[in-house]
Design brief:
Length: about 725
């Protein structure tokens, strides 16, 4: 009896209560028992399910044919983000005939533009405690449960991440410690690892870039981190494996309705859809239509009823990516109180450092653009926490993006202006089911709640939810040492093998089989798309099997190159388009259009524009007299005829004189970065503007600046060539 009472208390306060009741040894045994029972339940649930497409996924054409030819689905999900894909997976594993349509690509919206954290929300717990808010407390508890589940069902795509909270005032140490310990307590048996306190010395040892002045110590706690776009894709592909018909680039034109013969009321019975790529339209009949369109929630609700009130209040969150040397490999940083009261995360991700986010009201758009003000705000906050020895430069921003968070108001609430802190599930008079709000971490429980509501309201014949513990695409067969087999069996580079294992899990072998022979002694297979990233050409071919239809799909969501470094992505694009064009039989016109669309995406949505605008025709030259003299001297080593400008020919001649060989196309690219008026040459003023921007930190890693400096140093070491050495002359 006492055991049952203790379990009741655990449901509210977490594992700490159990520890108090039974002591540590009993708690450990209890946790093992609970985990064992949960895994047995998961295994039993998976054993009951049939996997029609375990060996090979249907092609997109086959999926579209199934959409057109199926007489009626039980469930049609509109929206291919995390929540929509989650709804499709939940529905199909309940033995419901399921379809999903997405007008762009899977995870093309908010779900690929997150902070990459799987977390319960430390700040929500703080509010719950300070305001005695039980709803917020339960929201955190649910998220922590989902965090544990997500880390278990996709171990290749996710992992626990320690996050440091630096403390600069003595009184804050016990305050933050108590809050973080409560976070552990609420997680209960699903606590990833226990939080701990660090001395100033130990904190600086683990995070040497941290500002030392006034630092008194730090607290480290654990949350989860994942590859968000790949996780979203894994959910959608898993749904397809279990028999759901999923189709990207398929938009809803309008909803189909039928009249109830008894009441005369109109009921939603499907949707008119259009294949965005071919323009063909067709009807998809369904007993239930679920609106899971994130920021576009109201657009679909108005298709149902033009008079319905808007419930979505979109908010833009900007993130930036800077080089990996700004943070340790396996330690994040949390700034709990920025200058304007927001929270900033500073996290290692894919060997880079990600920083964000902002929270600004915005308009709904399919193509959000990161603003320069938001980028500079994040950089200022980062500077506040890093040592003065670390110069945080604007030019170090390798990529930036904006994601629209779909905050919602509850349509059933009397106060329609108040933001709902959690998600809402609503069903219209005509039967349209809407799931809106929420967070990435809780996508699965949101989907479960949505399907429960739909089944009950629309009288669907369905089994119970089976997605707790249901392994996602790639999880089966993955182990932490899988990459070693890839190196041994296929002759892949170690870094490439680790990347494939952590991206595709057990499916990494299928990607490796598509990798091309390099013709080198080592690696044997696996030609890289760009030298500094482990993405290989074989991934482009595999991306097509994963329903990639455009070059943007490959650089943004099948690989994450566009999110990590816009210049590297831009360099990889021609080869990506070439591979896709050959495989998909694209015309030359289509290949040109794909290249231009992808460049436009990088320029506007991934921060290339903000990066390139750091050097413009109107850029101020902020150099002292000695610097101007030094840089003019460097310029004239290339401009030997004193023309006032240099071309690729001038640079090529100097490089050849020091035995450096760069192909002409690469040289054109290097000069084009600095050629502001795009006339095929770099004038002296353009060069001085470049060096001024480098000095101010607005531009970093300029290939031309580094190339000319290196060439000058080599020439100066050689000294003047004598007549004797030159072989004489007349």
């Amino acid at each position: 009896m006492a055991f049952r009472k203790a379990l009741k208390r655990t449901a509210v306060v977490g594992g700490g209560a159990v520890a108090a009741a039974f002591g540590l040894s009993q708690l450990i045994e209890y946790r093992k028992t609970q985990h064992g029972l949960a895994r047995l339940a998961h295994v039993a649930a998976e054993a009951e399910l049939k996997v029609p497409f375990a060996d090979e996924l249907p092609t997109r054409q086959a999926q579209l044919a199934a959409l057109r030819n199926t007489e009626e689905f039980d469930v049609l999900v509109v929206g291919g983000g995390a929540t929509g894909a989650g709804c499709a997976l939940d529905a199909v594993t309940r033995n419901l005939k399921t379809a999903l349509v997405e007008r762009n690509d899977f995870s093309s919206g908010t779900s690929s533009r997150s902070t990459k954290l799987i977390h319960g929300g430390v700040r929500y717990l703080q509010k719950a405690i300070m305001q005695l808010d039980y709803e917020q407390y339960m929201m955190v508890k649910e998220a922590l449960h989902e965090r544990a589940n997500l880390l278990e069902i996709a171990p290749h795509l996710s992992a626990p991440l320690p996050i440091m909270l630096p403390v600069y005032k003595w009184w804050q140490l016990p305050y933050y410690w108590a809050g973080i310990k409560m976070y552990d307590l609420v997680a209960g048996i699903q606590c990833l690892k226990s939080s701990y306190v660090l001395s100033k010395t130990k904190a600086l040892e683990l995070f040497p870039m941290l500002k030392k002045d006034k630092l008194v110590g730090a607290i480290v706690y654990y949350d989860g981190q994942h590859n968000d776009a790949r996780m979203n894709l894994a959910i959608a592909l898993t749904a397809a494996r279990y028999g759901a018909v999923v189709a990207n680039y398929t938009e809803v034109v309008h909803l189909l309705k039928t009249k109830d013969q008894q009441t005369g009321a109109e009921k939603v019975c499907g949707a008119r859809c259009r294949d965005v790529i071919t323009g063909q339209e067709f009807d998809v009949k369904a007993k239930c239509v679920i609106n899971a369109t994130g920021p576009f929630t109201d657009a679909l609700r108005k298709m149902d009823n033009q008079k319905t009130q808007n419930i979505c209040q979109p908010s833009a969150g900007v993130h930036i990516v800077i080089p990996g040397y700004y943070s340790p490999d396996n330690m994040g940083l949390l700034d709990p109180a920025t200058s304007d009261g927001r929270v900033i995360f500073f996290l290692p991700w894919e060997k880079m450092t990600i920083a964000g986010t902002t929270d600004t009201p915005t308009n709904v758009t399919a193509h959000p653009i990161p603003g320069e003000d938001d980028i500079n705000f994040i950089l200022r906050e980062v500077r506040n926490y890093l040592s003065p020895d670390v110069e945080v430069r604007r030019g170090d921003v390798l990529a930036a993006w904006s994601g629209i968070r779909p905050l919602v108001t509850d349509p059933s609430s009397k106060d329609t202006q108040s933001i709902c802190r959690n998600h809402i599930v609503s069903i219209s008079d005509s039967g349209l089911v809407t799931i809106a709000g929420g967070k990435w971490t809780t996508y699965r429980s949101m989907a479960e709640e949505t399907l429960d509501a739909a089944v009950k309201a629309l009288g669907l014949s369905a089994e119970s939810c089976k997605t707790v513990g249901l392994m996602l695409e790639g999880a089966k067969g993955w182990t932490p040492t899988l990459y070693i087999r890839l190196v041994q069996d296929y002759g892949l580079e170690n870094e490439v093998a680790q990347h494939l294992a952590s991206t595709y899990g057990g499916k990494a072998f299928d990607v490796a089989k598509m990798a091309q022979v390099t013709g080198q002694r080592w690696p044997i297979v696996g030609k890289r798309l760009v030298s500094e990233f482990p993405y290989i050409e074989g991934e482009v071919l595999y991306a097509i099997k994963e329903y990639a239809c455009t070059a943007i799909d490959v650089i943004a969501r099948r690989t994450r190159l566009g999110f990590l470094n816009v210049q590297a992505a831009d360099e990889a694009l021609p080869r990506i388009v070439q591979i896709m064009g050959k495989e998909l039989d694209w015309s030359q016109e289509r290949m040109t259009a794909e290249l231009e669309a992808a460049k436009k995406f990088l320029y506007h949505e991934m921060g290339y524009r903000s990066r390139s605008e750091q050097l413009t025709k109107t850029s101020e030259i902020n150099l002292d007299y000695q610097e101007v003299i030094r840089y003019k001297k460097r310029f004239h080593k290339f401009d030997k005829e004193s023309k006032g400008f240099i071309t690729t020919v001038d640079v090529q001649q100097v490089l050849e004189s020091i035995n450096v060989h760069i192909d002409e196309n690469s040289l054109h690219e290097i000069l084009n970065e600095v050629d502001l008026n795009k006339n095929g040459q770099v004038e002296i003023d353009e060069f001085l503007q470049l060096m001024s921007a480098v000095k101010k930190g607005q531009v970093s890693d300029s290939r031309l600046a580094i190339l000319m400096k290196t060439a000058e140093e080599t020439l100066d070491k050689r000294g003047p060539v004598t007549v004797d050495r030159s072989g004489g002359g007349v």
